[in-house]
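Justification of computing resources. Each target in the renewal requires a structure prediction run like the one illustrated here; the chain below, 269 residues long, is used simply to show the kind of job we budget for.
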Amino acid sequence: MRIALYREMTLNAFRSLLAFRAEVLLYLFGQLFKVLVQIYIWYALFGDNNLLSSQAGTVSLQEMITYVVVSSVISVFATNDVIFSVSSKVSSGEIAMDLIKPMSFRSVIFCQALGTNMYRILFELIPLVIISMSFFHVQLPSLANGLIFLILVFNGLILNFLITYTIGLIAFWYILVWQVNTVLGGLIRLFSGAFIPIWFFSDSLVQISYLLPFRLIYYEPISVYLGKVTGWYDLLAIVLQQLAWMAGFLLLQKWMWSRAVHKLVVQGG
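Resulting structure tokens:
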């Protein structure tokens, strides 16, 4: 019964997006344009050389092209509207209806995010992968690295959801959280390695990035994909870090939720 409810909630989110089919081409064009710009930036940085030295050793231009494409693929999932969704429900009063549903508020938000991801897989991810593989000659990982990469990406996406959901709960106190979302977006872009791999960071930025969870969403999975991380000890350490951060944010959001429901102030409802 509960599974059917989750499925229907997810499908409703998916169906609601089908009403905006004109946006599909715009989003896809935006993704392709972003990939193309980043690739040509790396072409310019490499110049006549096909190799660059980094903290991860020698990096080839083809590896950087693959990095850009794989990062864009992950961003299709990692980019979500969870913070704005929570804020909107609180400010509009829709949160009152969610509280009486036979499922947790976190599950409601998660199912809606999952439905959005299903939509983006069909209309953004698949075309992006096909075009990238055809024109950019993306490298494929070994079977072992590919499987571990999928595990790390899955964990990273759950971690990303917990981060954005926890930040979104701030809306119970401050209602409008677009400023917080802007700051979070900047931190993720800088310290996740989504645009610039941590290989090329200065020592101080590397230390800061390792104190934050964002690199576990982009940088670490892509490093495994490219074979930059191979030892089982290092791979296990990455998985354990993901699980530790997930547990930490899960406990934090539970604490915030327990406080939020006691002082819920709904505007307009």
